[in-house]
Amino acid sequence: MVALSGGPFLMGSDRFYPEERPRRPAEVGAFRIDRTPVTNARFASFVQATGYVTLAERPQPHPEHVVRMVPPCSAVFVAPAPNTPLRGPTDWWRLVPAACWRRPAGPGSSVEGLDDHPAVHVAFEDALAFAEWAGKSLPTEAEWEYAARGGLEGEEYAWGSSLTPEGRHLANTWQGQFPFVNLMEDGFAGTSPVGSFRANGYGLFDMIGNVWEWTTDDYAAPGQPQPSSCCRRQDGGTTKVIKGGSYLCAPNYCRRYRPAARHPQRIDTTTSHLGFRCVRRLG
Q1: At a CB cut-off of 8 Å and minimum separation 6, what does 273 contact?
Q2: Is the Cβ–Cβ distance between 116 and 41 less than 8 Å?
Q3: Residue 250 in 3-state DSSP?
Q4: Which terminus of the chain has fewer CB atoms gathered within 10 Å of its CB, N or C?
Q5: Are 232 and 140 within 8 A, CB to CB?
Q6: Using CA atoms, how far apart are residues 255 and 209, in angstroms rounded to an integer?
Q7: What share of the chain is helix, strand, coil (3-state, %, to 5)?
Q8: Rounded distance, CA 193 to CA 268, Å?
Q9: Reduced to 3 states, what is the DSSP secondary structure of residue 172?
Q10: What are the domain boundaries of the chain?
């Protein structure tokens, strides 16, 4: 973990999506934060020690039939065929039976050889369970954004004012026309080993791109008050704020590879591009 002293900073952005506005003063206390997202190896240690079964590995109540159950499954990105008319995210997301952190692409896949990749298909309750086991917590949105900015004041990206300074890719995102073609100019089509790109100013890796990360803040829709400090934590909502973007964020679709970017995520939903990291508050 990396120790951060906390303090005041400017949170949000007025330049991109409505839910990031307004740019505003915020403040966090001192805390430590994981240097990388929780990896498959670390998550496997937790499961082995506790016998924990993730949400994606359990049957769930059917949303329309009280007496029926939905078999274990999770959402996996599947690129549509070129030139397919697009209606929305259901054109590239599939609920795949048996997909989970152990089998990130569903049956026939595994995390063998992916020990240093982020654990995915992790629900909010799964992340909370891991954090409790590790003697840690999940970050608030303000803590996460403070850490992601790496000490830079007023910059849109975690490394400065340009997405690709001097043509260099500094995070695992999507290059090309999403969702059809990923040119992989950054070297990766899916998740990448943590630490594949340089750390930010605080020595933290993968705060941008690779996988989205859970926070504890309930999501506030545009026009509603946004969180401004680490003390505004809510744990009763069904939709939380996730941060950081992922390997699926692309200029033509989702420019959320920035510290200020935020997105709603239901706590009962798991995907192939969503993970987490933990914090430990000081003082």
Answers
A1: 77, 120, 191, 211, 212, 246, 247, 248
A2: yes
A3: coil
A4: C
A5: yes
A6: 10
A7: 15, 20, 65
A8: 26
A9: strand
A10: 1-283
Backbone angles phi, psi at 44, to 5 degrees: -65, -35
CB 256 within 8 A of CB 263: yes
What pLDDT, on the 0 to 100 scale, is given for residue 71? Answer: 87
Predicted pLDDT of residue 231: 32
Confidence at residue 233, expressed as pLDDT on a 0 to 100 scale = 36
**CA-based nearest residue to 163, from 123, 209, 102, 196:** 209
Cβ neighbour number for residue 178 with a 10 Å cutoff: 19
Question: Does pTM top 0.85 for this prediction?
Answer: yes
> For the chain, how far is it from start to end, CA to CA, in angstroms?
16
Can you tell me the distance from the alpha carbon of 140 to that of 229, in angstroms, rounded to the nearest whole number? 8
Please state, in angstroms and rounded to a whole number, the distance separating the CA atoms of residues 113 and 109.
11
Under a CB-based contact definition with an 8 Å cutoff, are residues 17 and 37 in contact?
A: no
Reading the block at residue 129, the tokens are: 């369970």
Q: Is 1-283 a domain of CATH 3.90.1150.10?
A: no
**Among 62, 253, 54, 24, which residue's Cα sits nearest to residue 141?**
24
Q: Which amino acid belongs to residue 96?
A: V
| 215 touches 237 (CB < 8 A) | no
What's the CA gap between 167 and 276, in Å, rounded?
29
Q: Looking at residue 48, what is its pLDDT?
A: 98
Encoded amino acid at 35, one letter: R
Count of alpha carbons within 13 Å of 134, Cβ hemisphere only? 23
